[in-house]
Amino acid sequence: MPTPRSIKEQIASGNYALVDPLDYIIIGFLPDEGSLFMGLYPNGELVPNLLKKFTAEQRKAITSTMLSARLRVLHLMGLVVCKERGVSAGGKQVWQRTAKGAAELKKWKGGKNGSADVG
Q1: Nearest CA to 6 among 21, 18, 16, 20?
Q2: CA–CA dist 84, 92 (Å, integer)
Q3: pTM, to two decimals
Q4: Dihedral through CA 70, CA 32, CA 106, CA 16, nearest 10?
Q5: Predicted local distance difference test score (pLDDT) of residue 15
Q6: In angstroms, rounded to a whole number, what is the distance separating the alpha carbons of residues 30 and 35?
Q7: What per-residue confidence (pLDDT) applies to 17?
Q8: What are the average pLDDT values for consecutive 10-residue runs of the chain, which has 119 residues?
Q9: Do 96 and 80 touch, CB atoms closer than 8 A?
């Protein structure tokens, strides 16, 4: 049987691993799926705002392009979702963590005896 080639195929076959600690930090910075701002619009993070949550030192090694790529992969894994921000947002989308993402984050933090300084 040939080896899956695309990331989507690899994820579908269960052949994937999270980038530790980057993916967990990203998931930790996101609000839960279904969170609303003022009860009206999805509460979530845009990539530029997410980048600002990292320390100045971390931002030297992380770009918005890298974050966008990791969010797309996490989305394929079912750990984050992308939601339309609202009617006047000009089509911008925000990211939220899924229940599966929250469970992965909790499991990761538990493996670090709760010492992970994330969301």
Answers
A1: 16
A2: 6
A3: 0.85
A4: -30
A5: 77
A6: 10
A7: 86
A8: 71 84 97 91 93 95 95 96 76 91 95 64
A9: yes
Shortest CA distance to 68 belongs to which of 43, 50, 92, 91?
50
Can you tell me the distance from the alpha carbon of 4 to that of 108, in angstroms, rounded to the nearest whole number?
27
Six token digits for residue 9: 């195929």
With a CB cutoff of 8 Å and minimum separation 6, the contacts of 61 are none
Write out 33-89 in H/E/C secondary structure.
CCCEECCCEECCECHHHHHHCCCHHHHCCCCHHHHHHHHHHHHHCCCEEEEECCCCC
Q: Domains along the chain? A: 7-107 (1.10.10.10)
Hey, what amino acid is at 26?
I
